[in-house]
Amino acid sequence: MRGDVNVMAINHRGLSSSAFALAGRLLRCAALAGLVLALPAAAAGGKALDLATIFSSDTFTARLPAALKWLPMGARYAYLDSGADGPALVSRDVVTGRERSLSLATVPGMPAGFRVTDYQWHAGRDVLLLRGPLESDWQGHGSARWYVYDVDAGRARPLRDDGRLQQLVKLSPDGLRAGYVLDNNLYLVDLRSGETTAVTRDGDGDIFNGIFDYGSTEFGWLDGWRWSPTGERIAYWRMDASAVPRYPLIDELHSYPRVRDFHYPNTGEVHAVNAVRVYDLRTAKTSAIDIGHDPDDYLPQLHWDSTGEHLYVQQLTRDHKTLRLWRASADGEGVELLHTDTDPAWIDITDDLKPLSDGAVLWTSEDSGWRHLYRIDADGEARQLTQGEWTVGDVIGVDEQGRFAYFYVKRESLIDQHVYRVPLGGGTVERVTGAPGWHRWLLSPDGRYALATHSDARTPPTLQLLAADGGHLEVLVDDAVPAFDDYAMAHTEFVTFETDDGIELNAFFIKPPDFDPAKQYPVIAYGYGNAGSQVVVNRWGTQRGPTQDLWHRYLAQEGYVVFAMDNRTTTGRGKAAKNLTYGEYGKWAVLDYIQGVDYLKSLPWVDGDRIGFWGWSGGGYLAAALMTKAAPLFRVAVSVAPVIDLTRYQAVGVERWMGKPEENPDGYARVNLVNYADRLEGKLLLIHGTGDENVKFAFTLQFADALIRANKQFDMLVYPNQRHGIADHRLHVFSTMTRYFREHL
């Protein structure tokens, strides 16, 4: 460990900035014994779960510090506190233990009762940006009102005077300016004078500056601009979606329907033309970064080098098979190809590139057949830093002083996530986390410390301050869900089983608390199944959040056995396994779940005639596919927001797995569930929101039309104007699914 640390604990209830004694509870961690998670019996006499508590209360919301983050300068972290003295922004120095608290209860210049939900802080200049509540538009894009708080002056002022909300607000590295997006244009504000400069002016419904159009967000982000490390330049994307077809969403809840449309490129159709620009704040001039790419290609990632004089631009060919890394001078005068990756199927885009101060970059690639970490030097020479039949996950960060890179790995077990590190020059790969389960780190800017959360399937998250070598420094939160132990609930058991062709697959059960192996139980199965995805994980709340996991425990309480599994194309099994998906989406998700049913029926305590299934989005597709392609294995299924016909889905999301429709017509036909509607057997409930901008409501209508034409009976529930997650009505959704299984399973 480096440095003596004396940090006061954060109380789980109020997150108060005063010093608290720890509650005295030991950190709880469950141990994996063989393949099954060893768990204590449910607390005798504890409360029973109910749907209202799960979905309409914060009983099981983890009491972790809000907006917890490291500050850019020094080893200091901060969070929003809602203690007895009113809202405050609290920061702590991890070396000295010194704490600072800024009251946000009454800030001159901010409206009374203004609720701060996030912040950006340049502690060296004592300038803060304070964000109010987020407001989401019908596409799910968040905007908010931001205030500039000058701590020395003790006053705040709006970032923009006209009251309009801003998107993608960022404080400059030097703390002198802020940038934001409004109406698809990029703006800068001088925080000393308040002067606003329009970096772009051509943004409209077709041109997107500093923000991605909808079709391009499939790469995983909306943010389309980057400050240079010195704050002297801004790099941004300009996306021209003029030729992209528009898709209408219809709001029927008015006297006359209202139509909202947006650019949505289906497979095989034209997508937005990607371009990169650099704005120089010193000259107020904009330069184009021209790498000579085909307009049909994508530019999915941008990164500055450590000096702010060069940009790294990633170019992905339309077929997703070739990824090029370019280094360009900030003035656009010099461009050179640094590295190229290829794959026979597709290449996944990540945010793993990390520039180093010596001109090299860290890079992850599946070129070896497994995603591993590489160092690419300034001359383009690539050196593999990790190797073996295991997969590097996200790159967490870099300690340049200690010469280590930190990253996530599922090495010993695919259901656990650990933190590993490797020397930047190559050497021994070292695991720095110990307990089984799921580890998430926020690495300090200097790479010396980590704010580390850990959970497992039995234990809600804990929060600790660690040294970067894994050494324990301080427990910050050890009881994030204090009500958890008050409930007598079922818990997860992890298992593996083998397919007929010898592939070992991961799965879990949640059994009734009073499980009797001499009895037979109905089973409700769950799955997702997309290549590289995962649902069987040893973490609190699984991958989809605690409410869904708690609902599964509720179902077990009601007498069902809950089962979930990951197929052979899911995460951690290497690129060759993922590539099995190529050309026929969902094939192995269906085939391996058929094997899963065979496994279930081999268990004496499973009622093989009473097996149901549910899934959402890709899992909704799987639910409908299992009720048609795999009929009659399942008695009942619920399909929420299902993809049905991939020729009508997003170009980026589908073409990586399927190619274009004209290149693979037979594959698209085999995937299209409209072609299998006449095979439906059993009870099927379709659920969808009419405002789903991701998986169109039209998919469910088209499948319903095919079922009707095939004279097949089914049930359907529609949520007006709800988006893909049906976020406003979760209690209703899961109450309906509960009733449907109760009535038909």
Q: Can you give the mean pLDDT? A: 92
Total strands:
47
Approximate strand percentage:
35-45%
Helix content: 10-25%
The geometry reads as: globular
- Order of strands in the sheet with the most strands? 40-41-43-42-44-45-46-47
Rg, nearest Å: 26 Å
Indicate the low-confidence ranges by residue numbers: 1-43
- How far apart are the first and last residues' alpha carbons, in Å? 56 Å
**How many helices in DSSP terms?**
9
Counting helices, strands and paired strands, the structural category is: mainly beta
Largest sheet: 8 strands, mixed
Q: Care to describe what's here?
A:
The structure is a single chain. The protein is mainly β and 745 residues long. Helices cover 12% and strands 35% of the residues. It has nine helices and 47 strands. The strands form twelve sheets. The chain has an eight-stranded mixed β-sheet with strand order 40-41-43-42-44-45-46-47, sandwiched between helices. Strands 17, 18, 19, 22 and 23 form a five-stranded antiparallel β-sheet that branches. Strands 3-4-5-6 form a four-stranded antiparallel β-sheet, with no helix packed on it. A hairpin with a 5-residue loop joins strand 30 and strand 31 (382-384). The longest helix has 15 residues, at 587-601.
